[in-house]
Design brief:
Elements lengths: L6 H6 L15 H9 L35 H4 L27 H8 L7 E4 L2 H6 L1 H6 L1 H11 L1 E5 L7 H10 L4 E2 L11 E3 L4 E3 L11 E4 L10 E8 L8 E5 H7 L2 H10 L1 E9 L6 H14 L8 E5 L7 E6 L5 E3 L6 E3 L3 H4 L1 H4 L13 E4 L8 H13 L1 E4 L6 E5 L3 E5 L7 E7 L5 H4 L9 H12 L11
Parallel strand pairs: 1-2
Antiparallel strand pairs: 2-16, 3-18, 4-5, 5-18, 6-17, 7-16, 7-18, 8-15, 8-17, 9-11, 9-14, 10-11, 12-13
Helix pairs in contact: 4-9
């Protein structure tokens, strides 16, 4: 998930000995209210009166089944007889095909796409087969993933452990790769030798709603993902969210879609607040330092811009312009392919948010660098949340995701939760995959930043609206 990428700036820079945010603990009662609230956010609230934070809706919310899992000692067990995958493939470069799209025709084409996600439920016989089930059904599962955009493997015993999860994806001949943001040092492995990253399970971020996004940057995008549940949230919440980028595109107001496509969007990924009274040469020096020393660690095409969101002295790292629609590299299907639902400040300020101010993002129209209007944000919210399936993932469940078709997120939760994810590169196209592999010597920063994140208070929310 992208919310960790910004912690590097906070770790490396401070102003006048202070930090870029102040933690504000949630009471147990307010945390409970977040979980219980499902009413639609009042998007029209004014900034003079800070808007109420309300958990977003979902189009479909399947019931829990209360299936048992394993103990942490058991589910973290790795098969030591298998080779170490630490030197996995680098995350492949993003495949863009977003120019010259006829929007009305694209919406008509996208409306015919099969439903996402497809559910495959294990039978007792399937469970007795273990990994053999996946090797026997590899062709149909892989084709279903391409057709539907996501496949929910539900009720399988095999994937209740790290070793079983690996056995599953190896039976499907999927090739692991790094997270798109691994080079930043903001990604934590659950089991490095099994190419398994921990999802956003940290107690400090359990009160944060993660909006819909593709696990991608303008530069790198994983081809596929396998999200696995080892332990559902012990005290409630924590549903995994998935939505079809084709369905979102098909259902969006054409006028809004055209405006976003024609003007393009840019996303700011982090903030560094410099005292406005600093002279220009000092500000430029800080900007140059950040640009040279920090930005390259994110392996993203970033531009350092002062005060793009109107706050005096604020330095923001902003991604390059991109169109919000892209054609799928294999099927050619046009889809909603961007992270605006997750990153728009007007949406984050109106839902549970546990990101420090240094990590508060914003989405801009690329041609003017004005933040998206409330009206356009409201339409993104409406159509995105209409098509969310809030999965009741339980131990052993896996969601296979085509990262160029489906978007994902996570609801707030209470207690302890352990989900994980493996990212995959192109296993049938060497040109798209490339020949880069991970350089292990770069891993020290990764571990250092994750230790810093573990020190954050268990529950806090942004209060900077």
């Amino acid at each position: 998930m992208k919310i960790y990428r910004v912690a590097l700036l906070h770790a490396l820079f401070s102003v006048n000995g202070g930090t870029a945010f102040v933690a504000s603990p949630l009471s147990s009662s307010s945390s409970a209210n977040i979980l219980k609230t499902t009413t639609t956010t009042r998007i029209g609230a004014t900034t003079a009166n800070p808007p109420e934070r309300v958990a977003p809706d979902a189009g479909y919310v399947p019931e829990w089944e209360d299936r048992a899992g394993l103990s942490p000692e058991e589910f973290m067990d790795s098969d030591m007889s298998k080779p170490d995958l630490s030197e996995m493939w680098e995350c492949p470069l993003t495949l863009w095909d977003s120019e010259g799209i006829d929007l009305a025709a694209a919406q008509k084409q996208a409306s015919k796409a099969p439903h996402c996600p497809l559910e495959i439920r294990a039978t007792p016989t399937d469970n007795t087969l273990g990994a053999t089930y996946f090797s026997r059904n590899k062709s149909s599962i892989r084709s279903s993933l391409l057709k539907h955009g996501a496949v929910w493997l539900r009720g399988f015993d095999l994937m209740k452990s790290v070793s079983g999860h690996r056995a599953m994806y190896e039976a499907l001949d999927m090739q692991p790769c790094l997270d798109p943001l691994h080079s930043s040092g903001l990604r934590k492995f659950a089991s490095e030798r099994d190419a398994l990253y921990e999802e956003v399970n940290k107690p400090s971020l359990r009160g944060h709603y993660i909006g819909l996004h593709c696990e991608s940057t303008a530069k790198r995008t994983a081809a596929y993902a396998a999200f696995v549940c080892f332990q559902r949230a012990t005290e409630g919440g924590g549903r995994f969210l998935v939505a079809d980028g084709a369905a979102i595109l098909a259902d969006m107001d054409l006028e809004v879609l055209k405006r976003l496509y024609d003007r393009q969007i840019r996303i700011s990924v982090s903030n560094l607040d410099i005292p406005p009274a600093f002279p220009p040469f000092v500000k430029e020096g800080i900007k140059g330092l950040v640009d040279a020393a920090v930005a390259p660690k994110f392996d993203m095409d970033l531009e350092m811009i002062y005060e793009s969101d109107g706050k005096p002295g604020r330095l923001q790292a902003v991604e390059c312009p991109e169109r919000p629609i892209n054609r799928h590299p294999v099927t050619g299907l046009p889809v909603w392919f961007n992270n605006a639902h997750n990153h728009a400040r007007k949406l984050r300020d109106r839902r549970p948010c546990g990101v420090p101010e240094v990590g508060m993002t914003e989405v801009f129209y690329a041609d003017t660098m004005d933040p998206l209007t409330l009206e356009d944000c409201a339409e993104i919210k409406r159509v995105s949340e209409k098509h969310i399936t809030a999965l009741s993932m339980e131990p052993g469940d896996v969601l296979l995701v085509d990262n160029y078709r489906a978007l994902h997120g996570r609801d707030v939760f209470q207690g302890d939760r352990f989900h994980a994810v493996t990212w995959f590169t192109w296993d049938d196209n060497e040109e798209w995959r490339g020949d880069e592999r991970r350089i292990l010597e770069k891993n020290a920063m990764n571990k250092a930043i994750n230790q810093m994140m573990d020190w954050l208070p268990k529950d806090f929310e942004s209060d900077q609206s």
